[in-house]
UniProtKB/TrEMBL annotation:
Membrane topology per record: Multi-pass membrane protein
Alphabetical keyword list: Membrane, Transmembrane, Transmembrane helix
Protein name per its UniProtKB record: DUF393 domain-containing protein
Subcellular location: Endomembrane system
Coiled-coil annotated residue ranges, if any: none
HTTM-like domain sequence ranges: 14-277
Lineage summary: Bacteria, Pseudomonadati, Pseudomonadota, Gammaproteobacteria, Methylococcales
Regions crossing the membrane: 21-43, 58-76, 83-99, 111-130, 151-171, 212-232, 239-259
Length: 630
């Protein structure tokens, strides 16, 4: 096995692939991180305060979240990529392990994002759609953009993250699913989609009421997850796994209220898209010929840098930049402009021989780029156009022109300090066999860490009665703690029988105002759905920790306190002057198919089982001692 993996690594490393998919993956990862930071900022007091708005234990949390947002923006745009990716990885670990995020508000994808962030450290994420790639070009401004070759990377940069972050996850999840009766019955997708707490606002009843379809989906997912790690690299099956995976996680994103997990998994599928597709997409979206030709002063550093910047963002290749000194004489339409005047501005010529100069050239460039059209339109608005023209003239008329020798036109090799370049390119090219052996050992170590989790929690934990005193079990837990913290390796036993067995009741909160009128708190609605934006990790807090098949009153009291204090403040309630009513409704979570089960659960009636009352920043409860028996 060792020799096979080592040989396969050398084979894959020798194959080059477009870097497009990795660039898009970096952008999606950064955007998903940004939306989660925005979510944390909105629910800052609910998640981090011991008592929301009343006992604020971490007043600097918003500041650090904003710093994290800056780092996430850097990751998204690919600016100082290695530094930003490292900071983002460390911040995920700190927030997950040193705040209530993981203990009480597990979003279901924090550890997945940590694992993905770890691999981003070693991926060439700065070589496509990034500011870093532009910075490298700007360091040699007299090198024309057309002389830079299209960047390529080793296929290992695609295969390894998919195999470990998706392949290992799927196989581990499939092991756990085999112990769940509803999964064995082919109802793995059906059961959670019939539970009010878990569904999104989209009504999927027409799909849920088709038993044959649900069985097909359930068994297809089992086969998909068991076989993914073994066959996803095969060219004939790659598209099959791509389409099934996209359908699976798009379905999760749309039908469940754990959309961050669905989006995180979807982002990885940019790495599974066949390389040939990227080349075909590139040919499809790029212009067959430029629709605008721009002439610039080749001896002006500012003009050269401007051209490099504009070309970098011309992703559809609709603009052609040419040296006025070399090419202007070849265009009869420019004959009316003398050579001296031609070098004072950026001039442009469109496909209808219309001439533009100065600010009008920039406006036309943005319009022709397509996706930047709004900027071009804004530049043409009276008033804004005059201000832009004044600023343009102050810069253009004071720029410096320097002579350029033949040496400055030769592309220069710029230093690359990324971990990918140091390990996968430098080290691999100098000593390929040593590189292959080291990487094989690392992969085997990761495999052992994953097997420790899968075997211990997927098999031994479920089959053994003595789980805590065994020294091997204790050692396994210690290893898992380390691998979970830094690599995101964790059991993926999501929504199984041990979660839904006995899940026959759900709770909601209303409040009675001073006039005796009852209102629903904007948390759980009359149907039992968790309302947006109470999804993701807030959903996990209420549906997986506060309300379970065996409700713990201490935990329930804690989260009733948090929810009422947070939403009471959000909607402007005087907590001392309202009474919060705790309501219960009976639902069913069968492991066999039942027609229209979702609507039955949504339409069942509520019963008021108790209340909660605030007075002088303290809350008191009037609830039954054992809600589970109601």
């Amino acid at each position: 096995m060792y020799k096979f993996i080592s040989r396969k690594i050398l084979e894959l490393h020798s194959k080059q692939a477009p870097v497009t998919g990795i660039g898009l993956f970096r952008i999606l990862y950064g955007l998903i991180t940004l939306q989660e930071i925005a979510f944390l900022l909105y629910f800052n007091h609910l998640i981090f305060d011991p008592i929301p708005y009343i006992d604020v234990e971490f007043p600097m949390i918003p500041f650090f979240l904003c710093l994290w947002a800056v780092v996430a923006v850097f990751v998204t745009i690919g600016y100082r990529y290695q530094f930003a990716a490292t900071c983002n990885y460390i911040i995920w670990i700190i927030f997950v392990n040193f705040t209530p995020m993981q203990r009480d508000f597990d979003g279901g994808f924090d550890l997945f994002m940590i694992g993905a962030g770890f691999f981003l450290l070693f991926m060439p994420g700065d070589r496509a759609f990034s500011i870093d790639s532009l910075r490298r070009k700007l360091s040699t401004p007299f090198t024309h953009y057309s002389t830079y070759p299209r960047p390529t990377v080793s296929t290992l940069a695609y295969i390894l993250p998919i195999a470990i972050c998706l392949g290992f996850l799927y196989f581990d999840s499939a092991i756990h699913k085999m112990f769940a009766e509803h999964w064995r019955n082919g109802l793995g997708t059906w059961l959670p989609a019939t539970q009010p707490y878990y569904v999104s606002a989209i009504d999927m009843s027409c799909l849920l009421n088709n038993k044959a379809l649900q069985n097909f989906l359930g068994y297809t997912i089992l086969v998909f997850q068991f076989t993914f790690i073994f066959f996803f690299t095969r060219r004939q099956l790659r598209v099959v796994y791509l389409l099934i995976g996209l359908g699976l996680h798009l379905g999760i994103t749309l039908s469940f209220n754990i959309y961050p997990f669905g989006l995180g998994m979807l982002s990885f599928y940019t790495l599974l898209i066949p390389f040939k597709w990227w080349r075909c997409i590139g040919q499809l979206v790029t212009a067959k010929k430029p629709s605008l030709t721009v002439f610039y002063d080749q001896l002006c550093p500012l003009c050269n840098r401007t051209v490099l910047i504009l070309n970098h963002f011309d992703i559809f290749s609709r603009i052609d930049f040419k040296s006025a000194q070399e090419y202007a004489a070849q265009y009869p339409a420019l004959a009316c402009i003398n050579n001296e005047t031609l070098l004072t501005d950026l001039y442009a010529l469109d496909d209808q021989n219309r001439i533009y100069s100065g600010v009008d050239t920039y406006a036309r460039i943005f319009i022709k780029m397509g996706y930047l059209l709004p900027i071009g339109v804004i530049l043409r608005i009276p008033g804004i156009h005059q201000l832009a023209l004044k600023k343009y003239r102050s810069i253009a008329d004071t720029r410096n022109r320097i002579p350029c020798t033949s040496d400055c036109l030769v592309p220069q090799v710029l230093p690359d300090n990324t971990l990918y370049h140091q390990f996968f390119e430098n080290a691999a090219s100098l000593r390929p066999n040593a590189f292959s052996r080291k990487l094989t050992k690392l992969l085997l170590a990761l495999l052992i860490l994953q097997l420790n989790s899968s075997i211990h929690y997927g098999l031994i934990y479920r089959l053994s009665t003595d789980r805590s005193q065994n020294p091997i079990s204790q050692a396994s837990n210690a290893v898992l703690m380390v691998s979970q913290t830094f690599l995101g390796i964790t059991p993926h036993a999501l929504y199984l029988h041990d979660h839904f067995a006995g899940y026959d009741h759900i709770l909601a909160i209303t409040y009675t105002d001073q006039n005796g009128a009852e209102h629903w708190l904007p948390f759980v609605n009359e149907e039992g759905r968790l309302l947006a934006p109470n999804w993701g990790r807030v959903h996990s807090m209420w549906a997986n920790i506060a309300v379970t098949p065996n409700i713990d009153n201490k935990r329930l009291h804690k989260f009733i306190m948090k929810v009422t204090a947070f939403w009471g403040q959000k909607i402007g309630l005087n907590l001392d002057k309202v009474v919060f009513n705790i309501k219960l409704k009976k639902i069913s979570a069968p492991s066999y198919w039942v027609y229209d089960q979702l609507q039955k659960n949504l339409s069942s009636s509520w019963t008021t089982i108790g209340s909660a009352k605030w007075a002088d920043n303290r809350i008191s409860y009037d609830l039954p001692d054992n809600i589970n028996q109601l």
